[in-house]
Amino acid sequence: MPILEIKDLKAGIAGREILRGVNLTIAPGEVHAIMGPNGSGKSTLAQVLAGRDTYVVTGGEVRLNGRDLLELSPEERACEGLFLAFQYPVEIPGVSTSYFLKAALNAVRKYHGEPELDAMDFLKLMKQKMKLLDMDASFLSRAVNEGFSGGEKKRNEILQMAVLDPKLAILDETDSGLDIDALRIVAGGVNSLRGPDRGILLVTHYQRLLNYIVPDYVHVLRDGQIIKSGDKNLALELEARGYGWLEEPAAAH
Amino acid sequence: MTQLMSNTSYLQGLLATGPNSSTPGPDWLQARREEARQQWLRAGLPTNTDEQWRFTDLSLLAETSFSIRHSAAAMAADGRPAGSDGAELVLINGKFSVQASRLPPAPVRVACLDQASGAELATFENLLGAQARPAHHGLIALNTANFSDVVLVEVPGGVAVEQPLNLVVHSVGAEPFASYPRILLKVGDNSSVTVVFSFTGPDNLTYLTNSVLETYVGAGSRVELVKIQREGTSSLHIGSDYAHLDKDVRFQSLSLNQGGLLVRNNVTVTLAGPGSEATLNGLSMTAGRQHVDNHTMLDHARDHCASHELYKSLLAGRSSGTFTGKILVRPGSQKTDAKQTSKSVLLSGQASMNSQPQLEIYADDVKCTHGSTNGPLDEEQLFYLRARGLAYNQARAMLTVAFAADVLARVWQPALRGTLEDLVVAELHRLEREEF
Ligand SMILES: Nc1ncnc2c1ncn2[C@@H]1O[C@H](COP(=O)(O)OP(=O)(O)O)[C@@H](O)[C@H]1O
Ligand SMILES: [Mg+2]
Questions:
Q1: What is the pTM of this model?
Q2: Position in ligand 1 atom list of the atom nearest CA A45
Q3: Which residue's CA is the closest to the ligand 1 atom numbered 3?
Q4: Which ligand is in closest contact with the Cα of A88?
Q5: Whose CA is closest to B302, among B251, B253, B248, B370?
Q6: Of B384, B390, B403, Cβ closest to residue A103
Q7: Please, what is the end-to-end C-alpha distance for chain A in angstroms?
Q8: Are A22 and A226 in contact (CB under 8 A)?
Q9: Interchain CB distance below 8 Å, B386 and A94
Q10: Distance (Å, rounded) from C-alpha A36 to C-alpha A222?
Q11: Looking at the partner chain, which of B386, B389, B402 has a beta carbon nearest the beta carbon of A95?
């Protein structure tokens, strides 16, 4: 059974259709990349999958491990194993990162009938994951994303992903705004989560990230539809030639 | 109702009949009381036509006939904040109860006007009404005419009081009644103290607490005042707190509001010496049909002073709130630095909030900033938390607690800060439960 199965998904806001029939299937162990010019609907797709109610789904079907995803609340989707690393992680003053993450982890554990982690075990887990991302312990006591640099915010997203251990990770422009060192660290974090049971969906409009996280499949999203799919070489081709040569929608997909 | 509020027999009905205490008191006191009575009969209750009372309708007060209770009746249920084991002074219906109190150790002094004589009486004469003048508004006049007693807390110069002093103001009764707590706080030069005022009373009873506090802070002192307003669910609470700061003072107040049906907090601070700093904080948490009006006045009477204001409100149900921040910079008060912020979260579509600065600036070398924000909880923050697995209500509760966090973080006393945080978290969970 695929981890994610999107069939003819249509969604938009206030009478404007942004996603115009998206089809995509991710099997366990696969890493897919979605590329496309600015405004093509990549973030909309990511947000719709995570359950953002600003967007209205007008058609199609989405299954996560066989379950109807669209009928679930955002928190149920998260508990079912969907994780979205946001393109623009929001700052939450007054909530410390550790308090937030512990609450999130325990919410997921509770959903699966597992006992809550106590403070000691939680700290142990955090230390281990933070080492992976070369993060300082002081992170934990800072308010969620407040005053974080762009790179710190992205690292914080990956840290959360590592702690919550999702089945499907969607990373929205996780590479944007990162210098090369930060990119390496973040990519290392993502690669360490690659595994036979997990699916990863990378959203990016640069090829650069794909040098570090090599995808199994690459798709091009344009005007709310996937117009071409291929392997990692498609990304290189896009890098060399841009998006212009793809004007004709690829009916075969 | 406006008519009734200036009707003579109504006004007379709210005045104390007969002597307020066993002895009518010294001549100066009788004279001040008489002046206050006359002022009350002239002015009556403030109405909405008064600019400073535009957003708070006192007609509820005029609709009820309140008897005055002087007797220190048996103590009601314990209303003190958990974890306070320092000194505790208890006022019951405006009357100081020695039996119910734990007096602070020397050199802090506590005295009542009732029993004062000699030098102590002179202190009362000097301080009582020197800031809270009957002419300011009718409720000051009414308090001055009606108070049962005056409690004086005095911290001499050069003393650092480590433990917070607690002052618990209970209103006790079974029929509509009014009480008029009157408190003086005098802090000498180069001292430091934190005082926590807790107001409590019975639920589901229309009663009035009309309280007046006058604080005098000597040069170089650090004073923190925390007011925890937890009056009963149907009560009216009018608090008028004044503070007069000498030079180089660090003064901070926190007004924490969770109780009461109709609440007005007047906070008036006079920066009377150069180099002083006043920080006024507020946190209101309301539901149902509560209305809380925070009205602050910072009088920058001298140069090189700073003031910071941070007032926050969380409003659920059909509750409403008002914040008015008046800043007066007098001629010659150069290098004044005044910053005012009001932020509110509307937890329901029916709640409302009104914030307004009132700046009067008569000096040119001055920095004055103000800002206010009102709105629902941030949708993006809410979604972020939910996208990590937190249930809707849990996410909302986390954000409301977070919203209050910076106000509480300002509290100087670490132990007190912890107590207040617990209290606020419990209250916010109650609000969220009521809402959903
Ligand atoms: N919340 C929104 N309100 C209005 N327009 C939106 C909103 N979200 C996305 N759009 C529009 O939908 C289109 C796709 O946006 P987006 O999904 O962010 O694209 P991408 O991530 O590929 O750059 C753009 O034209 C954008 O302006
Ligand atoms: Mg985007």
A1: 0.89
A2: 17
A3: A13
A4: 2
A5: B248
A6: B390
A7: 20
A8: yes
A9: no
A10: 6
A11: B402
